[in-house]
Structures are given as C-alpha cells and as structure tokens.
Amino acid sequence: MEDKPKNLKSDICVNRWLSMLKKPHIAPLTQFVDELKKELGAGVGIPYFDPLDGGINARLLWVLETPGPKAVGTNFVSRDNPDLTAKNTSIIFKKTGIKKEDTVLWNVVPWNLSTEEENQNPNAAEIRRGIPYLLRLIKILPKLEAVVLCGNSAKRAAQSIRESTKLKVFKTYHPAGRSYNITKYRDDIHNAMRDVANFLYEGNDNVGIFNLVPEIGRHQDKSTRKSVNMQNANPPLRGTGYSVESHIEKTNNECRAIFQELFNRIMELHPAVTEKAVKVLVGYKARYNFAEIHFLGNRLKIHLRPKSYFDPRELVAHLENAGIIMNRRVYISSKKDIEYIMSLIKQSYEDVAFI
C-alpha cells in the first residue's frame, strides 16, 4: 500500500490501517499501546503506531512532543495524518533519504493534551510522567540504533535515554509549521537528519548527541553571520581521558543536582550546543566557548564570556588581568540560585552564538 502525506484523511485508509495492526512487525507495538490505555484509563487518547512504518524492525525512533488532535482523530501516530506536522515529517524523511521501513514514530508524552481549538504543549510534570513509557517502548525495539528528539519537550528525554541505553541520540527542532516554515530552522532540521542518514546507512559514527568531534558551524553562512547549525554533541570525548562523570565525582550531592539542572538547560539553548570534558573543567560551546564549569567539592565555579551582562545581584567577578577570554567568574552552591546563574549563562551564550 502506498503512503502519501494526509492519506489518513480518508476513512477508507484509516480502516485499512486499523486492519493491519495485528501484522507481526506491528503487533507488539499495538499490544504496548493497549497496555498503556489500560494503565492510564479508557478516556486517555493514545494513538497506535503506523503499520506502514518499520514497527519492531525500526532502526530509528522519531520522537515528537504529544499527539495532536488529528492523530487522536485518525488513531495513529503517522506522517500520513492530515496535519502540517505530519506532512513536514514526511517531507523531511524523503528529502534526507531515510526509509520509512527503518523508522517508527512516537511522542515523549504519548497521550493527547490538545483540543481542536488549541494545541497544548506538555508541562514538565507531564514530560517526566511520559519518559518511562518512552523507555519501555525502546526495550521492545530490538533493532533500534538511534533516536531523534524533536522539540524542547522531547529533548528533555535525552538524559534518561543516555543513562539507560547505548543508542545514538540526535536533537532537532519540532517539524511544526511555526518552525519548519522558517528557512533557518528548516535547513537545520534537514542537516541534522542528513547526519542521521549518514549514521544509519554510511556507518558514520561521528554524529549525534554522543558525537565526539562535532563539526560546529559546518553549514553556517558566514556572510550573513547566522547562528550555528544543528550539529549537537554530548561527550565524553575520545582521546582526552576525561569525562563529565570524572568531574561530577569531585562534588557533593547538592552540586551534582545543580550541575544536572544546568546541563539540561544549557543543552536546550540550541541543538548546536556541545559539551567537552577536559582536565580541569567541562566546557560548553556554540561555535565559541560560552561557559566553563569547574567542580570544587561544595560549589561550582563557572567562567563566562559576555561582552556585557545584566547582573543586578553583582555575583559576577570580572577578571580583568587574568589573560583569558572566559574572564567572568561566578560561583553557585545552592539550587535556589539556578535560575539566576542560568540567566548569566544565557547572556554569555547569546554573545557568542551570533558572532
């Protein structure tokens, strides 16, 4: 059966899709959805997996945020749904050469939150509740090699996947019309998905959230001074002998929790942000370094490089004669200061991301 964008607008197609839910490649995923419906209650809208996708043979899991009303209406998470996100997803896969039979689509929050009148993004509590179901799904996909997290909500699952699996994890923008219609974001999505295709079909292991030598700025238009591209990384790096974990071990539990929250927020600034662990610090880069975190036992020392900054609490010290570029320094030892410190880090990021 041929699949086309918006195919599932037809009741005939919907019924034919439903008739395929017991096929061997999709039956375990159908059972998974049925189990979730029983656990979460009959009134929860959880659509089925597309039987024309790869099912349990999928090598790539494409994770969006939450099912839209069209998905609940057709009863499928599918690129053939009659909505713009589905259409854009179909275009993305075709443009980047990723085969439909190698993919399966899902949402970090698998139940519907939206109405016909309004799309509702999941909040932090809903995302935390949804992530364990995502990890359960991964366990029943034996051929899975990579996960693509689309949009800020889905990206919050990256750390859990990293800790629980050895899968390659990629991050990109959500393919909704509001982002995909912007040339920069659309190009970034395509570039990220070409990296996914290279990983799947060319054996190129040097891509993704575990990318060890990121190609920052590879697609940057220097003449217009645009921001960095979608390439993303989250080491430890090859050859350095150092890892984030080796630094975390030097700190107390409070600082570990602070670092984890800062890490999550820093990596959400832009998919191009990369992390690198070296001898004395963990650094973050978006074309240029913008934050360096030192682990001092009972506090974290953070070096920044904003040209100017808003610091009403006057926590930032300017190391004028230090002879270093990252010459702004601030300390953090309490979780109550995370919001403020993150505002300083964001200012540093914004100064370098558009240089």
Within the largest sheet, what's the order of strands? 7-8-9-10-12-11
Reported for the largest beta sheet, the result is: 6 strands, antiparallel
Structural class: alpha/beta
Instruction: Estimate the strand proportion.
Output: 5-15%
Helix count, per DSSP? Answer: 12
What CATH architecture label of the largest domain applies? 3-Layer(aba) Sandwich
The tally of strands reads 12
Shape estimate: elongated
Number of domains: 2
Gyration radius from CA atoms, angstroms: 21 Å
Walk me through this protein's architecture.
There is one protein chain. The protein is α/β, with parallel strands linked by helices and 355 residues long. The protein has two domains: 7-224, Uracil-DNA glycosylase-like domain (Uracil-DNA Glycosylase, subunit E, 3-Layer(aba) Sandwich), CATH 3.40.470; 244-353. 36% of the residues lie in helices and 15% in strands. It is built from twelve helices and twelve strands. The chain has helices spanning 11-19, 27-40, 69-74, 84-96, 124-139, 152-155, 158-164, 177-180, 183-202, 244-248, 253-267, 338-353; strands at residues 48-49, 60-64, 76-77, 103-107, 146-150, 168-172, 274-277, 282-286, 288-295, 300-304, 317-318, 328-332. The strands form three sheets. It has a six-stranded antiparallel sheet. A four-stranded parallel sheet has the order 4-2-5-6, sandwiched between helices. Strand 7 (274-277) and strand 8 (282-286) form a beta hairpin. Helix 4 crosses helix 9 and helix 11 packs parallel to helix 12 (338-353). The longest helix is centred in the middle third of the chain and has 20 residues, at 183-202. The model is unreliable at 206-240 (pLDDT under 50).
